[in-house]
Amino acid sequence: MKINKFLTIAVFFALVLSACDKKQDDNTFTDPRDGQTYRMVKIGDLTWMAQNLNYDVPETDADVCFDGNPNNCAKYGRLYYWAMAMGMDTSYNGKSFTAPVNHQGICPPGWRVPNGTEWDNLAQAAGGNWMEVQAGNSFFYWENAGEKLKSKIGWKDYKDKDAGNGTDDFGFSALPGGYYDACCEIKPGNKGSWWSSTDNMEEGPELAWSMLMNWEDNNVYRYDQIKKSLFSLRCVQGAELAKPVKQPEQNDIKSGQLPEPEHYTEHEIKHIPPVQGNQFNPGIEYSVLTDPRDEQKYRSVKIGKSTWMAQNLNFETDNSWCCGNDESHCAAYGRLYSWNAAMSACPAGWRLANDDDWNNLFKLSGGKLKKIEDFSGNCSESFWSVAGGNLKSKIYYNGKDKFGFSAMLGGIYNRNATTGEKGYFSCGGHEGVWWSATGSAGNASYYKMSSDEFTGMTCIYADEKSNGYSVRCVKE
């Protein structure tokens, strides 16, 4: 009797374990091309991969692990150009694809690249509210959808905000795999961007829809991104197109201030009208100064105890340049100067701002000085949080211009004085760099604000004095 009893119990547990294994098998599948196993989850009418694709495309090294580290591939999946994700020739990174958008691409057999509508449906199923922000160019996001889609672990903690890790209510388990785009590299832990198969033919043949989640808020953003960016890929099962999600009527769309942080591309930025004058805060009372050397007029503003020029300097000197050698860029953003030229470029009674001036400005603007260990982006050693968003012109999506500083992102001229190479310009309004008068024998300090990175941060660097950066002057 005891033997029969033990056999019965053993059979019972064997059946339970078998059922558990079957349940686990039902929630996973194996890619027959390389034997990798992925989790999957059904959300609404679609079954999604619950992990980023980690397929190493044969005969190419263009799909990458972030930083070339295989551990990043194992955790976050690989990063792909749009055309590669779609299984197309690389020429489609610069031209439109007009066929139906349910495309298998490099997804496993029986799976395909999700289109933009399917990403929208996912965000809507996660409880997101459709939002439009109108600031220069409109863009869209699903408010609070990211909280239920992000993994419970793996996201950098964002202090003082209800963000960072998610609740992963549906098992989608979105992880911040980082990415490379036209401007920057964003390290894992901060943000994740995923391709859709939707080619944005209206805005430009080099653009496709992508979705972004980040550590600083719980939204899911939809952007037109340069196809040559390297993003993550999630696949959906089957071949049927999703029915379009019903968007709110225009008068029902809730418009408002951009939540932090933003992300938008160089393509979008180049549509900002490069006209000097529209960048100022109409709620600020400015003074006006005239440079007697060339009769150019500049606005100025008092912030704390210092009076700052509220425009980038545009006085022509030796070793100064218009970004891209385009005179219209100088009219909008001012000139770029080598450090030696910047030191003597300000009008009489004014001087190049030094480290004390800049740091006092950032502090007055609500900034907090942080070391690089508090941040895994592109700053070198230290950065000021918050201040950049409060100082940038309102023409930028993330600019609040609370004090009338009206920072315009004038680009850079990167030169190599040692080799004599001409270097390159980076224009288009996606980064602004300003010299400080504080320098040493070889290098000098400078401060960088960016439209593509975290909303309010201002990075602190030291660099070769031969490079071309913008100049702001303070009154003596």
List keywords for this structure.
17% helix; single chain; six-stranded mixed sheet; 476 residues; alpha+beta; five-stranded antiparallel sheet; 27 strands; 10 helices
Protein model, in words:
By secondary structure, the protein is α+β, with helices and mostly antiparallel strands. The chain folds into 2 domains: 28-267, no CATH class; 287-475, no CATH class. It has 10 helices and 27 strands. Strands 9-10-11-6-5-13 form a 6-stranded mixed sheet. The termini are far apart. 49% of the residues are buried. The model is unreliable at 5-24, 134-138, 240-275 and 372-378 (pLDDT under 50).
When the domains are counted, the total is: 2
* Poorly predicted runs: 5-24, 134-138, 240-275, 372-378
Alpha plus pi helix count: 10
Helix content: 10-25%
Shape estimate: elongated
Tell me the strand order in the biggest sheet. 9-10-11-6-5-13
N-C termini distance: 101 Å
- Biggest sheet statistics: 6 strands, mixed
Blueprint of the fold:
Elements: H1 2-26, E1 28-30, E2 37-43, E3 46-49, H2 70-76, H3 82-85, E4 111-112, H4 116-125, E5 129-133, E6 139-143, H5 145-149, E7 179-180, E8 185-186, E9 191-199, E10 207-214, E11 220-226, E12 236-237, E13 254-255, H6 266-269, E14 287-290, E15 297-303, E16 306-309, E17 320-321, H7 327-333, E18 336-337, H8 339-343, E19 350-352, H9 355-364, E20 368-371, E21 382-385, H10 387-391, E22 412-416, E23 421-426, E24 431-439, E25 443-450, E26 458-464, E27 473-475
